[in-house]
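Propose amino acids for all 332 sites.
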C-alpha cells in the first residue's frame, strides 16, 4: 500500500493519538480549572482507535504516541496498548510510546514495557512540591517521582517534558538539568503555546527559550547535535551529563518543513497541523463502512490537505488563543 505523502512532499510517518481529553490534573498553562470535556458518548471505542491506528500503520506510519489529556486515566487503555503492541512484534511499527503526567506510572510501568513500549515522555515542570501543586492544581509530586522510579525499574527510557514558565521554573531549570543527568533522563523544554482558554494571561507565563538557553549556557556546555525527530525540538548534548536537551519553540516556523506527524482525537477527528483548526472526520468512515475502504480514502483526503505550517502567535494585541481547542484535545 502507498505511504502517505502530503502536497509538500513530506512523508507522514508519525501518528499521535489523544485517547481522552480528560485529566486528573489541571495544569495552569493547559486547562482552566472548570473544564468542559467531550461527551463520553462521542468517544471512539478502544477497538475503533485500534482500527484507525492500524490503518495508519498499514500506510507506512511507523511511530505511534498515545497521549491525552492524561492517557492513563482512560479506562482499559492498557488493552489498546497491548493490541497495538502486535505491530511492534510484526516489525511494522518502530516505536509505540506514551506521553503522561506520570501520576499513574507506578501502577502501569511494567505492563507498558511488557506490551512493547520502550520509551516514554513524562511531563514535570518543577521539582518543588509547592510549585508543582500550584502548576498542576490537583497533582502530587511524590506520585510522579514514584512513577518515574517504577518506570526506571521496568526498563523504560524516560524523557522529561518541562514547559518553561516565567516566574515558576525559570530559576530551577539548571537544577533540573542536573537532576536529569543524575537519573539518566533526557529533557525537553517547551515554550507555552496559545491553545484554548485558560484562567491566566499567557503573556504572563511566556518565557522565551532563547533566555532559557542563555541561562543554561552559563552553567553547562551545550554541544550542538544533528539529532532530529521530525518534530519541533532542536537538541543539544550536555557535555557534563552526557544527556540530551531538546528545545521546542513552536512559535517559530523553522520546524514545519520537515513535519512528519498528524494527530487523532478521541472522537475521531484528525488534525493535520497542531496550530491550525482544520480537521478531517475519521469517525464517519469507520462507523458507516465495515471495510476499511472509506477510512483509507478519508485518510488520503486528509493528508492531501495537510497545511504548510501553523499561524501561532502570542502577543499583547491578540488576547484570544491562536486555536480554540486545548492541547489536551490533540495531546501536543
Ligand atoms: N497529560 C499528559 C502530560 O501532561 O504529559 C499528556 C498530554 S499533555 C497535553 C502533553 C504535553 O503538552 C505536556 O508535556 C504538557 O506540558 C504540554 N502542554 C500542555 N499545554 C500546553 C501549552 N499550552 N503549551 C505548551 N505545552 C503544553
Ligand atoms: Fe493534564 Fe497533561 Fe494538560 Fe497537565 S498538561 S492538565 S497533566 S493534560
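Proposal:
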Amino acid at each position: 500500500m502507498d505511504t502517505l505523502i502530503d502536497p509538500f512532499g513530506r512523508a507522514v510517518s508519525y501518528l499521535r493519538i489523544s485517547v481522552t481529553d480528560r485529566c486528573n490534573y489541571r495544569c495552569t498553562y493547559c486547562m482552566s480549572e472548570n473544564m468542559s470535556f467531550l461527551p463520553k458518548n462521542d468517544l471512539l471505542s478502544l477497538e475503533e482507535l485500534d482500527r484507525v491506528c492500524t490503518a495508519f500503520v498499514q500506510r507506512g506510519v511507523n511511530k505511534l504516541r498515545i497521549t491525552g489529556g492524561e492517557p492513563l486515566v482512560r479506562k482499559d487503555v492498557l488493552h489498546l496498548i497491548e493490541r497495538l503492541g502486535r505491530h511492534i512484534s510484526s516489525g511494522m511499527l518502530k516505536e509505540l510510546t506514551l506521553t503522561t503526567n506520570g501520576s499513574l506510572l507506578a501502577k502501569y510501568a511494567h505492563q507498558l514495557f511488557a506490551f512493547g513500549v520502550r520509551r516514554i515522555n513524562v511531563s514535570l515542570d518543577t521539582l518543588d512540591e509547592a510549585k508543582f501543586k500550584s502548576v498542576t492544581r490537583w497533582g502530587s509530586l511524590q506520585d510522579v517521582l514514584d512513577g518515574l522510579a517504577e518506570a526506571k525499574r521496568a526498563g523504560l527510557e524516560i524523557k522529561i517534558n518541562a514547559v518553561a514558565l516565567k516566574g515558576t521554573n525559570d530559576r530551577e531549570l539548571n537544577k533540573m538539568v542536573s537532576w536529569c543527568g543524575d537519573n539518566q533522563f533526557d529533557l525537553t523544554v517547551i515554550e507555552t503555546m496559545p491553545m484554548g482558554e485558560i484562567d491566566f494571561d499567557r503573556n504572563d507565563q511566556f518565557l522565551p527559550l532563547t533566555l532559557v538557553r542563555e541561562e543554561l549556557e552559563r552553567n553547562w556546555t551545550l554541544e550542538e547535535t544533528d539529532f532530529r525527530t521530525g518534530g519541533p525540538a532542536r537538541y543539544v548534548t550536555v557535555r557534563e551529563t552526557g544527556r540530551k536537551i531538546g528545545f521546542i519553540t513552536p512559535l517559530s516556523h523553522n520546524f514545519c518543513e520537515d513535519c512528519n506527524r498528524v494527530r487523532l482525537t478521541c472522537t475521531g477527528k484528525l488534525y493535520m497541523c497542531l496550530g491550525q483548526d482544520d480537521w478531517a472526520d475519521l469517525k464517519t468512515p469507520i462507523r458507516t463502512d465495515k471495510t476499511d475502504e472509506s477510512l483509507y480514502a478519508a485518510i488520503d483526503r486528509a493528508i492531501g490537505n495537510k497545511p504548510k505550517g501553523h499561524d501561532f502567535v502570542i502577543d499583547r494585541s491578540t488576547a484570544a488563543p491562536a486555536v480554540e481547542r486545548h492541547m489536551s484535545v490533540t495531546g501536543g
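Residues 275 and 310 are 5 Å apart (CA to CA). The chain is about 30% helix and 15% strand.
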